[in-house]
Amino acid sequence: MKIRFFMTTVLSALLFASCESDNDIDEIPLEESGSYSEGIFILNEGNFGSGNSSVSFLDTDLQSMTNNIYAEENEGGSPGDTGQNMGFYEDYAFIVMNVSGKIQVVDRHTFNHLATIENGLHNPRFLDFSNGKAFVTNWGDGMDPDDDFVAVYELENFELEEIILVEEGPERILTVNNKVYVAHKGGFGFNNKISVLDPNINQIKMIIEVGDVPNSMVSDGNSLWVLSSGLPSYAEKETTGKITKIDLTTQEVVQDIVFNEHEHPKNLSLDDQRLYYTLDDGVYVLGKGEGEVPDSALTQFNNEGVLYGFRVVKEKIFAAFANYDFTGDGKLIIQDQSGNKIKELSTGINPNGIYIAE
To answer: Is the pTM of this model over 0.85?
Structure first.
C-alpha cells in the first residue's frame, strides 16, 4: 500500500560512500520497436515485504491487457518489493522500487532488463528527468525529518552525480521549463512546500508554500497546479484540501481554490483544458480558469475497491482499484466522460499508477 516505509540505512552512509557504481551497465542494447512501444502501463505495487510487484500493459485499442510483463520478458523475475513509480526517458523505462531501495531500468520497447540502480537510494519515491539526468525523491529514514534528499543520476551511465538535501517528505516530482518541482508531502510527518530546483547546478533556488500535504502536480507549461489533500482528521488540527495555481514565469502563487470542510482530494490530472481529481469514490472536473470546486461529481465509482491509481487521457477516465483488503489482483476501469464503462480489466496486486507510452 501507499504507506510510509522505514529503511534501515542512514543517509550519512550515502554521503560518505564511494561514488563507484553498483550498476550492471557493461552493455545496454536497445531496440527501436517492440511489443510495448505504444500503450498504457499499469504499475502494481504488490504487497509490502512480499517482492511481488508487477507491471501490466494495455494496448492502444484498449482491448488486450497483458499482466506481469516484467516477469514475462525477464525469465520470470520480479522487479522487486513495492513498486512506487515509473518514468520514461528516451528508450528507457525506470521502475522505482520503494522497499527494495532500487530502480530497475528496462528497454521501454521490449521491457528487457538493462540495469539496476542501487547506489544513493534510501526509501526512494518518485522520479523525473532533466538535462540528461534523473532526479529521484527519497524520504531517507522516515523517523528523521532532516535526512530527506533528491538523488541525481547521469543517464548516460546511471552513475550517482549528487545528493541534494531537501525539506521533509519529498514525494511527487515534475520537470517543467528546465526547472524541477518537488512536492513535499511530509514523509512520516506533514509538509506544505514545493521546492524549485535548478537542474543545471543541482541546487534548490526557492521554496513555495502551498496547501497541507501536496499529493499531485500538473502543468501546461505556463502554470503549475498543485493539489493538496489537507491534514487528515487524525492530525492535531484537520485542514481541508486546496488547489494552488503557480505562475511559472514569476514562480508566485496566483490562485488558491479551497475545498469544503473535511474534503481531502487526490490524484490531480490535466487533460486538454480541464483539471480532474478524485474525492472519495468520485471523479470531479473543473476548467483551468475556474475558481471554485464543483458541487457534484462528473462520475462516481461505487463499491469497486480502493481508488488507487488515476489518470485522464483524451477524455477517457482510467481508474485503478485495489481490493479493500489490499490482497489479490486489482482492476482497471475505463470510462467515458458520461460515466459509461468502456472496459474493465484485471491487473496485478494493488495497481497504483497509470503511465502512457507514445
So the answer is: yes
